[in-house]
Amino acid sequence: MRPYRIAVVGQGYVGLPLSLEFAKHYPVLGFDINDQRVTELNNGMDSTLEADIEKLDNGLKKFEETEGKLGYKATSKLSDIVEANIYIVTVPTPIDKYNAPDLRPLISASKMLGEIIKTGDIIIYESTVFPGCTEEECVPILEEYSGLVFNFDFFVGYSPERINPGDKINTLTSVKKVTSGSTEEIAQEVNNLYKKIITAGTHKAPSIKVAEASKAIENAQRDVNISFVNELALIFDRIGIDTHDVLEAAGTKYNFLKYKPGLVGGHCISVDPYYLAHKAEQLGYHPDVILSGRRVNDSIAKFIASKVVKLLIAKGGIIKDSNALILGVTFKENCPDVRNTKVVDIYSELIDFGIKVDIYDPWASKEEVRQEYNVELIDRLNHEKKYDSIILAVSHNEFLKLDIQKIKTDNGVVFDAKACLDRTMVDARL
After folding, report:
1. N or C of the chain: less Cβ packing under 10 Å?
2. How much is the pLDDT for 206?
3. What is the pLDDT of residues 143-184, one digit of tens each?
4. Beta partners for 158?
5. Res 169: pLDDT
6. Is the CB of residue 170 less than 8 Å from the CB of residue 164?
């Protein structure tokens, strides 16, 4: 393989771990438009908690010791990455308020790279997209802004990210990586490049579209499976039986899949199905199963809020101006990631009922939650304040040790959305 100089565009949950692994073998520049993020990383800190700090420190030291011939450095200057010959794009691909793909970060990154790529460069996309997006949306932009010819002057690859925020077992290197390229030769080169860092091995897809589709269906499948048990939870609540009791009983059969009900947020499972649906509808097909699963999963926050209100009424409580506490706002436990969290939907529903709501989460950034959702988190739990309703929304380790009885009114309601608390302590669970 030729000597590589790698630039990774985007230094978040995906881009940073990728940069640090490649930095063990090549000179890597981590590019990010956020100056504060760049300063943080160059000082050896990571607010996402995804990076191995020792790897970050080692990468920074190697870059300095070798004068940029090996190791890692973060930058927000486009001029710093013009000498790279491998560009890896890891920018976010969210959805807009209409649940349509928001490609603005991807398009912006493609325009930026189009201004600096050179003959022989390879641009590899890792951002989740719909099948065909790389070649139909990104490549024309690269050609337009560079004046170069695709598959003659420059080439592209696609290798979908499989990062699971907060997961310290299924990490970047321990999960098999799907790769692809715009020609057979480039596909092999991209595959060999990732083989250098992925100990679990790689899977070379026959085309970029196949690699894109594989990522889209990974999370669509999980979304549909969770929507099934979420719908069961809605049904069993009406019957008056516990969903988890039913799942335990059904799970005794050898081929039963034991998915659990819950809020479905985050940057993947609640987003990626809309990318696949978008492509299907472009081609004249309405994906009933995928979109019905999305509707069910998006209804769970409203169900939880309504259930809490009904439980309060059943206990003779007054709804208006009652005090509610939501424990957790991140989209999953023991992780600071608040992207597309559905906990905020519970908050909004309770506010609509006239309830005063506090949210406490020791993992989340108060500033990020304020900017993203216009919601203020409380700094700490005041054990002198009693709540009429408490909702455990995220099962952070800290909450599992919490004595909820000390902060609950005598007639208070406890709803366990994660089914992780002692059943004798809760009034209902999902």
Report:
1. N
2. 98
3. 999 999 999 999 999 999 998 888 788 899 999 999 999 999
4. 125
5. 86
6. yes
Q: Is the pLDDT of residue 331 over 70?
A: yes
Q: Which residue has the tokens 């519970």?
A: 346
Q: Flag whether pLDDT at 1 surpasses 70.
A: no
Of 133, 268, 335, 420, which residue is the catalytic one? 268
Work out the mean pLDDT of the chain and round it to a whole number: 95
Q: What is the mean pLDDT of residues 314-327?
A: 96
Alpha-carbon separation of residue 69 from 39, 63, 121 (angstroms): 21, 7, 18
Q: Please say whether the beta carbons of 274 and 101 come within 8 A.
A: yes
Report phi then psi at 353, rounded to 5.
Answer: -80, -5
Residue 347 CA neighbour count, 13 Å, CB half: 21
The answer to whether residues 277 and 287 touch, using CB atoms and an 8 Å cutoff, is: yes
Tens digit of pLDDT for each residue in 48-93? 888 889 999 999 999 999 999 999 999 999 999 999 999 999 999 9
Q: Is 242 exposed, middle or buried (0-12, 13-18, 19+ CB in 10 A)?
A: middle
DSSP-derived pairing of the beta strands 122-125 and 27-31: unpaired
Q: How far apart are CA 225 and CA 256, in angstroms?
A: 12
Residue 355 to residue 369: CA distance in whole angstroms: 20
Q: Report the predicted TM-score, pTM, of the whole model to 2 decimal places.
A: 0.93
Q: Is 268 a catalytic residue?
A: yes
Task: Give residue 286's pLDDT.
Answer: 96
CA–CA separation, 115 and 97 (whole Å): 31
Q: With pLDDT > 70 as the criterion, what percentage of the chain qualifies?
A: 100
Q: Per-residue pLDDT averaged across 405-429, rounded?
A: 94
